[in-house]
Design goal:
The chain is an alpha+beta fold. It has two domains: 2-105, 2-Layer Sandwich (Alpha-Beta Plaits), CATH 3.30.70; 108-277, 2-Layer Sandwich (Alpha-Beta Plaits). It is 30% helix and 21% strand. The chain has seven helices and nine strands, in the order βαββααββαβββααβα. Strands 1, 2, 3, 4, 5, 6, 7, 8 and 9 form a nine-stranded mixed beta sheet that branches. A hairpin with an 8-residue loop joins strand 2 (43-45) and strand 3.
Length: 288
């Protein structure tokens, strides 16, 4: 089975199993064990996320014992898992896939980042400049200056789309970004650079140089994890529309004063959680 699931990132120490801390993969493993379906290497997750990163949609493949796989339907499978999962982690769809299907081989991933959660987010942003900054990241680039390098992974990635994300009043609240795969901390470093463009701390040509000259060191900072949400995945074996986030109603405007912004972050995190909960309810109802 392949399952779609989501979770509130602030409640977990990342997605992958780690000793002595609560993780998403660990909770999924516990649920499968309680159901008596666990076997070594039966669980594979598509996208890995750091601590604090929330997820509307991730995918995982779960290999079931043959006697269970032959009789259980998708709806019962979802219900059984959710009965053994904590409330901050929800499975909202499932489908049968050919044996050996890899959930990690998603064709594309869409993230959103709520930039206004970074302190000093300006109220007056030059839209065209911000849009052009987003455009700089589109296409194939060497992202050495926009990631935490991994010696076994190439820093070259192709970004399909990078666009401003707006609220219902037309205010820029962040950005969306789509690619087949991303590097460690890549989106959070892009987010920090876009935040600095919005503040007029850096110019567009500085981002362009950082992309064009990966052998030279540029450091535009690392944005916090709590503004980042994995929104949607596209996988050839999973029947789900690859969804770009709609304009969001009812999210608050951040105060510019530093102390007030720090307090407002609690509200912003609750708003993000509410957005996810509404999405999961809608998605569960859509597949019934």
């Amino acid at each position: 089975m392949m399952v779609a699931f989501g979770y509130h990132g602030g409640k977990f120490h990342g997605s992958q199993i780690q000793p002595d801390v609560r993780t998403v993969q660990g909770e999924l493993k516990h649920a499968i064990e309680r159901l008596g379906w666990w076997s070594e290497s039966c669980l594979e997750m598509s996208s890995r996320t750091d601590s604090g990163v929330s997820v509307r949609m991730n995918l995982a493949t779960i290999s079931l014992p043959k006697d269970i796989a032959n009789v259980i339907d998708e709806s019962s499978f979802v219900s059984a898992l959710n009965d053994h999962l904590p409330e901050d982690l929800v499975v909202w769809n499932a489908c049968r896939v050919p044996e050996g299907t890899r959930s990690r081989l998603a064709e594309k991933r869409l993230y959103i980042y709520r930039l206004e959660m970074i302190p000093s987010w300006p109220s007056d942003i030059e839209y065209e400049k911000f849009r052009k900054a987003c455009d700089l990241f589109v296409g194939e680039h060497n992202f050495t200056n926009f990631c935490r390098l991994d010696p076994v992974r190439s820093p070259i990635r192709t970004i399909e789309s990078c666009q401003p994300w707006l609220d219902n009043s037309g205010r820029i609240v962040g950005f969306t970004v789509v690619a087949e795969s991303f590097l460690w901390n890549q989106i959070r470093r892009i987010a920090s650079s876009l935040h600095r463009v919005a503040k007029n701390d850096i110019e567009l040509n500085e981002i362009a140089l950082a992309l064009e000259k990966p052998e030279e060191s540029f450091d535009f900072g690392l944005a916090p994890a709590d503004g980042l949400i994995l929104w949607s995945l596209g996988h050839p074996e999973f029947p789900h529309n690859f969804e770009v986030p709609k304009i969001i109603d009812g999210i608050s405007i951040p105060p510019e004063e530093k102390r007030a912004h720090k307090q407002w972050l609690n509200l912003a995190r609750m708003e993000n959680s509410s957005i996810l909960e509404r999405e999961w309810l809608r998605l569960i109802q859509d597949v019934r």
